[in-house]
């Protein structure tokens, strides 16, 4: 019996010739990644010193810290947290990425998505590095283990293999594919397992689209998602890689906990109704539902293809009167590219409010909604209160669907503007 | 220190699949940090008299994929403050599971638990035998073995005390 890509990566990280799903091992992460957030990094930095007597990390280049939340700061307290982070990084000689964009995206841009690497973060959306054959897991507070020990205890996860087949219809985006997958497989289908994506339809998704799908893996119950990287993914990742590792791929006879096939050709635009990411519905059943706010951004969406689609739909049109459309490119690199392509100009001309990269729109820290307001959003979540008042509502959908809703001030089918 | 068996009444059964634990205190209260305030908010939508009825050592029972969504820590902090000593569910959502185990909160996945117990039954989680026993009816079911690291974290009482122990290979 062969091995999955996950088993191969875990074996190397654990320094073992091979491991099997279910084995409990001590694995050394190639990279330990975090963003500064109150109750997280400040607590880890303090605990490292006070509880564990660690003044300096042993291998600073194995760590990376991002400042992407509370950007820009709106209170002295927030700026003070950033100062704690900057100071710790400077003292420890740990790379710090501030104001470069949302860390999960920037991590790929600056070379932490090394094919074959094992990465940990406290936030599960780091799973999107799986696009490049990197095994990246969000382990919540257990990330402290990776800050104070070289190796972390981990059970090698089983893998659910999902093969994508067929061709996508026009007007259907990666975002629709992911929520369709949750609908078909269920929100606990990959519980405690790795979602491995494959199949001949995988090439239907751009690298950016795959980042969307892998980055949301947690809503299938998966602890991460991974792809066996093809030439396109490697062409992005290898020139940027901070470390020389041999990429690995699942063996054809690898052992999977389950196998599923998703037919891409049957997918139509979907919408995820509040208050849980498990609630995928057909967009067509919600046409005309009035919305006041649109958010195009986040670590899940907000990349170039999202901006291109939104610009295409909004070109020569206007955002509905009174509708607030917030467009936040995921990273500075993406924003600059979008500006060079003229996308930003098109979006602004249509009436969009375009802002620099920040995580803060996704959790209602800015552009906060009040009661009875309703949003269409490409953010990660639609739980109550996520973007402001607990009496506001969030409908998750693709960038195309957000753009279409912005024109009509109501949920609309993006295909008529495609 | 080996784990002491959990023994208590089933103080509540969350029957909803994919239950979002933030609902225990209500999403609008999720940013409260004061433990008394949180405890006062807890369970108001489910059983306003919960606080009076619950006693130290009682347990909670949940359905499949308990903790799905975007779980925060305050709801279970509030429950522990009210005396809840552990959680038994059909299955757990990984993010929730990891977060609460890192707090040292005893939890077990026990497929079939919803059919094994009724509210206020007396139950025991027997770590040695790996089973949940309904002391009221005498019926029992095995629970899924904990990963070694999870077990040690619960034994140690949470992540920091666990990490202070020497690493056992």
Automatic annotation (TrEMBL), chain A:
A Pfam cross-reference name: Aconitase
GO biological process, one term: oxoacid metabolic process
Keywords: Iron, Iron-sulfur, Lyase, Metal-binding
GO molecular function list: iron-sulfur cluster binding; lyase activity; metal ion binding
Domain Aconitase/3-isopropylmalate dehydratase large subunit alpha/beta/alpha: 84-284, 289-409
Keyword Signal: no
Family matches, as InterPro entries: Acnase/IPM_dHydase_lsu_aba_1/3 (IPR015931), Acoase/IPM_deHydtase_lsu_aba (IPR001030), Aconitase_4Fe-4S_dom (IPR036008), IPM_dehydratase_rel_enz (IPR050067)
Organism superkingdom: Bacteria
Keyword Isomerase: no
Self-association state and partner proteins as the record states: Heterodimer of LeuC and LeuD.
Name of the protein in question: 3-isopropylmalate dehydratase
From TrEMBL, chain B:
Stored InterPro entries: Aconitase/3IPM_dehydase_swvl, LeuD
SUPFAM superfamilies, A to Z: LeuD/IlvD-like
The keyword Lyase appears for this protein: yes
Top-level division of the source organism's lineage: Bacteria
Molecular function in Gene Ontology: lyase activity
Keyword Lyase recorded: yes
Keywords, in A-Z order: Lyase
UniProt name for this protein: 3-isopropylmalate dehydratase
Highest classification ranks of the organism: Bacteria, Pseudomonadati, Pseudomonadota, Alphaproteobacteria, Hyphomicrobiales
């Amino acid at each position: 019996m062969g091995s999955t890509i996950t088993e191969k990566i875990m074996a190397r990280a654990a320094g073992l010739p091979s491991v099997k799903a279910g084995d409990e091992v001590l694995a050394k992460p190639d990279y330990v990644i975090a963003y500064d957030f109150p109750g997280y990094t400040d607590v880890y930095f303090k605990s490292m010193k006070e509880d564990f007597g660690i003044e300096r990390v042993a291998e600073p280049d194995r760590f990376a810290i991002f400042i992407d939340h509370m950007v820009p700061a709106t209170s002295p307290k927030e700026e003070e947290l950033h100062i704690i982070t900057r100071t710790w990084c400077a003292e420890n000689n740990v790379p710090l990425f501030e104001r470069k964009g949302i860390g999960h995206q920037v991590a790929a841009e600056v070379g932490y998505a090394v094919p074959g690497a094992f990465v940990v973060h406290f936030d599960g959306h780091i799973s999107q590095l799986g696009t490049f054959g990197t095994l990246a897991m969000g382990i919540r507070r257990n990330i402290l283990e990776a800050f104070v020990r070289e190796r972390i205890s981990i059970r090698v996860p089983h893998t659910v293999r999902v093969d994508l087949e067929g061709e996508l219809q026009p007007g259907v985006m990666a975002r629709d594919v992911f929520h369709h997958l949750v609908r078909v497989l269920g929100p606990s289908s990959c519980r405690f397992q790795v979602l491995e994506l494959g199949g001949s339809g995988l090439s239907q998704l751009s690298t950016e689209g795959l980042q969307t799908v892998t980055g949301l893996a947690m809503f299938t119950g998966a602890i991460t998602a991974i792809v066996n990287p093809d030439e396109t993914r490697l062409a992005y990742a290898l020139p940027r890689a901070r470390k020389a590792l041999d990429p690995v791929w699942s063996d054809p006879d690898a052992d999977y906990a389950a196998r599923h096939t998703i037919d891409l050709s049957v997918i139509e635009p979907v919408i995820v109704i509040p208050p849980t990411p498990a609630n995928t519905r057909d967009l067509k059943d919600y046409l005309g539902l009035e919305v006041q706010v649109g958010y195009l951004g986040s670590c899940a969406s907000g990349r170039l293809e999202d901006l291109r689609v939104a610009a295409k739909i909004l070109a020569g049109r206007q955002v509905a009167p009174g509708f607030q459309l917030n467009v936040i490119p995921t990273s500075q690199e993406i924003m600059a590219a979008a500006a060079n392509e003229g996308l930003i100009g098109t979006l602004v001309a249509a009436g969009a409010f375009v802002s620099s990269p920040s995580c803060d729109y996704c959790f209602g820290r800015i552009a906060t909604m009040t009661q009875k307001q309703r949003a269409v959003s490409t953010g990660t979540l639609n739980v109550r209160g996520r973007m402001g008042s607990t009496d506001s509502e969030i409908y998750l959908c693709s960038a195309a669907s957000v753009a279409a809703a912005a024109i009509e001030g109501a949920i609309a089918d993006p295909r008529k503007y495609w | 220190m080996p784990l002491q068996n959990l023994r208590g009444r089933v103080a509540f059964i969350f029957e909803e699949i994919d239950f979002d634990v933030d609902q225990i205190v209500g999403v609008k209260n999720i940013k409260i940090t004061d433990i008394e305030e949180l405890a006062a908010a807890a369970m108001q939508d489910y059983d306003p008299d919960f606080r009076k009825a619950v006693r130290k050592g009682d347990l909670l029972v949940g359905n499949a994929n308990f903790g799905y969504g975007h779980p925060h820590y305050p709801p279970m902090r509030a429950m522990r403050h009210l005396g809840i000593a552990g959680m038994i569910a059909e299955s757990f959502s990984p993010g929730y599971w990891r977060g609460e185990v890192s707090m040292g909160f005893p939890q077990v996945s026990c497929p079939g638990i919803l059919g094994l117990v009724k509210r206020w039954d007396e139950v025991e989680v027997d770590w040695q035998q790996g089973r949940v026993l309904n002391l009221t009816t005498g019926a029992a079911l095995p629970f899924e073995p904990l990963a070694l690291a999870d077990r040690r974290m619960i034994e140690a009482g949470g992540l920091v005390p666990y990490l202070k122990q020497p690493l056992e290979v």
